[in-house]
Amino acid sequence: xxxxxxxxxxxxxxxxxxxxxxxxxxxxxxxxxxxxxxxxxxxxxxxxxxxxxxxxxxxxxxxxxxxxxxxxxxxxxxxxxxxxxxxxxxxxxxxxxxxxxxxxxxxxxxxxxxxxxxxxxxxxxxxxxxxxxxxxxxxxxxxxxxxxxxxxxxxxxxxxxxxxxxxxxxxxxxxxxxxxxxxxxxxxxxxxxxxxxxxxxxxxxxxxxxxxxxxxxxxxxxxxxxxxxxxxxxxxxxxxxxxxxxxxxxxxxxxxxxxxxxxxxxx
Length: 267
Fold this sequence. Notes:
By secondary structure, this protein is of the alpha+beta class.
């Protein structure tokens, strides 16, 4: 009929026999009032009494979200665009809850994206796109529930910075690389100094241990020499005592003493 309003598909008229294609629904009105929603199949409806008010596709749709300016939490101006993927889940709400579902979703995606970007700093925006996309999807679905539309995914396409901000970020990146290089060099010097000190310390310890071991060895040698002399003296005294008690031993001892006396007297 002439009053047929459609979204996502071409116009269709009620000629009495209705064929609803797969993945489409017809929202029917009877004398201008909602009557029923027809899914895929063959139907017979009186042409004058029933009109096709809306035709909706149940397939997933991808809509481009135009580029827009946004301000991050650290007051950086960026230009950002994206793609929103949506699907009609309730044809009745999509027909009577919003005038233009596509326009409404793109506008909602833009405002939600600006709102979410305002909660994040620039570095987080660049590094945490997945979290940002998930937050935008959750926020869109809260508002789009009354429209019978579900946002399945949201993907940020491009994030553009001003020339001044790009130059500032390049300088900051260069300064950060320089700082890391200085830290690396200072750490190398510190480690080298530590290694030299550890080497000197180890050398002193080894020298001290060597001197101590030399003293110990000398002391042990002297002790062993004294012990050997003492053992020899004791052994000689023992032999002398045994010799004295043998027959003729005393005479031999007296003779030996006399010989030593003569030698000493001669000296």
